[in-house]
Each structure stands twice: as C-alpha cells, then as structure tokens.
C-alpha cells in the first residue's frame, strides 16, 4: 500500500527555513531602521548588508517558487478542515506574491549603482527619480503587509500546535 506524504520534501524544507531567516531579518530589521531613523554607521552597515543579502536571495526565491510549482503539497490528513486548508493556502500564495512584489520594487527603486557584498556592482535599471520613488513607496507598504502576514502565519502555526494539530512537523 502506498503511504501518503505527510511532510514537505527536504528541498522544500531547506528553502522554507533559509527564506524564513532572510525574510524575518530583512523585514523586521528594515522596519526597525525605518521607524528609529538613526543616522549612524550601524544603520548604513545594516542597510548595505540587507541590500546585498536580499539580492543574493533573489535566485534562491526563484528556485523555491519553481520547486513549489513542480511538487505537490503534503495532504493535511485530518489536521485542518477544508476551510482552514483553503485559508492557509491563500495566505501562502499571498506571501509568495508579496515577496515577489517586494523584490521587484526593491530592485527598481535603486537609483544609484549598488554593491553586493563588495563583489559585484549592479547598475540601476531605472533612472527616473519619480518612478524610483514610486517603487520605494510600494516596497515600503508591501513590507508592512508582509510583516502582518508573517505574524498571522507564525501565530497560526503556534495556535494549531497548541490545539493539538501538529502543523509544524510538516515543515521539520
Ligand atoms: C526579501 C526581500 C526583501 C524584504 C523582505 C525587504 C524588506 C525591506 C523593509 C522592511 C524595508 C524598510 C521599509 C520602510 O519602512 O521604508 C526595506 C527598505 C529598503 N530595501 Fe528592501 N527588502 C527586500 C528586498 C530588497 C531588494 C532586493 C532591494 C534592492 C536590491 C532592497 C532595497 C531596499 C532599500 C534601498 C531600502 C531603503 C532603506 C535601506 O536602505 O535600508 N530591498 N526593505
Ligand atoms: C518561525 C517562523 C516560521 C515558522 C514556525 C513557520 C512554519 C511553517 C509551517 C509549519 C508551514 C507548513 C504549513 C502548511 O503546510 O500549512 C509553513 C509554510 C510556509 N511558510 Fe512558514 N514558518 C515560519 C516563517 C515563515 C516566513 C518568515 C515566511 C515568509 C514570509 C514563511 C512562508 C511560508 C510559506 C510561503 C509557506 C507555504 C509553503 C508552500 O506550500 O509552498 N514562513 N511555514
């Protein structure tokens, strides 16, 4: 008898946790810098580091999306009902779309040449100040929405775990 799959495959799990670390850091450190507005060496250092990190993350994210599209998700098998599964799926799709929007707007808001860990220089794709500002606004609001969704996502995983639905082990 063929056993049905109950957890994400190894590659999907590696993609998830690498992405989780990068996105959690980029989102919350980015929002912190934007809120605190400290003009210090630290701020510049973190800002340059984040731009390099998220640029390196672009091919990883593309790999993750291709892998997610090519593989089947494990069945919930009694853990979530049909409505909950639909909600979870919608939130996941929305997160993927938002990350795409954040990456595209991040690249397009760059008006000056920037370095990726001091190794590669990337020339800006757009020169128009107004367009760059527009993408910067999109980047800003999309990252706010993503922060809320991350809290909902992690909150849902914790909530299900405590109510006896072991969702977390699908991703471990
Ligand atoms: C996973 C992808 C990314 C996430 C989660 C992310 C998140 C953020 C957040 C939360 C902020 C602060 C927003 C604000 O309130 O103003 C920010 C700012 C910024 N992001 Fe991104 N970002 C990502 C990708 C990128 C990429 C690919 C680039 C460009 C190559 C980029 C360039 C910038 C720049 C220039 C700022 C302005 C502030 C600064 O210099 O730190 N971001 N990002
Ligand atoms: C401590 C933090 C996190 C935990 C404990 C966690 C846990 C999980 C678990 C258990 C799943 C499987 C859920 C299911 O199949 O219904 C999952 C899926 C997912 N997570 Fe997270 N996660 C975390 C952070 C993040 C972050 C920061 C992001 C990015 C914004 C993220 C994006 C996703 C996506 C897109 C999926 C769906 C995967 C797919 O179906 O292709 N997660 N997460």
Automatic annotation (TrEMBL):
Belongs to the cytochrome b561 family. Residues 8-172 form the Cytochrome b561 bacterial/Ni-hydrogenase domain. PANTHER family: CYTOCHROME B561, CYTOCHROME B561 HOMOLOG 2. This is Cytochrome b561 bacterial/Ni-hydrogenase domain-containing protein. Its main location: membrane. GO terms for biological process: respiratory electron transport chain. Coiled coil: none annotated. The chain crosses the membrane at residues 12-36, 42-66, 87-108, 141-162. It comes from Pseudoalteromonas amylolytica.
